[in-house]
Amino acid sequence: MADDCLFCKIIAGEIPSNKVYSDDDVYAFHDINPAAPTHILIIPKKHLTDVSASDANDQALLGKLLLKANQIAAEQGLSEDGFRYVINTGSDGGQTVYHLHLHILGGRALNWPPG
Ligand code: 5GP
Ligand code: ZN
User: Are strands 83-86 and 19-22 parallel, antiparallel or unpaired?
Assistant: First the structure.
């Protein structure tokens, strides 16, 4: 756990969240400010500031993050109409919380390209 990391505090239960899924490695919860009818964040329990902070030691963890996201998307009923994964990275990427998170967005037709 990193000091002063919002998502580490959510994982620890120090800040409440609306949990979707949890296991030893990953945690998923509803975004507090949803940008789509379904907007879930899935995060590694290991503190990584962003996706580029990961390395070969995190290969299995990153794979698991995607596979669990697929499971959650299916359970949320997003498989038929589709959905989007987003990993904002750094200031130009629009990242605001510096603990790696994958956005799962769905439930409406999403615009492209992003702003
Ligand atoms: P980013 O902009 O870093 O890619 O995404 C951060 C996301 O975290 C935003 O969509 C924001 O709404 C969400 N968020 C920020 N603070 C909280 C919080 O305290 N609880 C939850 N559930 N989501 C949060
Ligand atoms: Zn963290």
Answer: unpaired
Domain 6-106 coded CATH 3.40.850.10:
no
82 C-alpha to center of ligand 1: Å? 22
Question: Residue 1: is its pLDDT beyond 90?
Answer: no
End-to-end CA distance of the chain: 32
Map out the domains of the chain as residue ranges: 6-106
Q: How far is the CA of 7 from the centre of ligand 2 (A)?
A: 5
Whose Cα sits closest to atom 24 in ligand 1?
32
pLDDT at 21: 98
Task: Write out pLDDT tens, residues 29-56.
Answer: 999 999 999 999 999 999 999 999 999 9
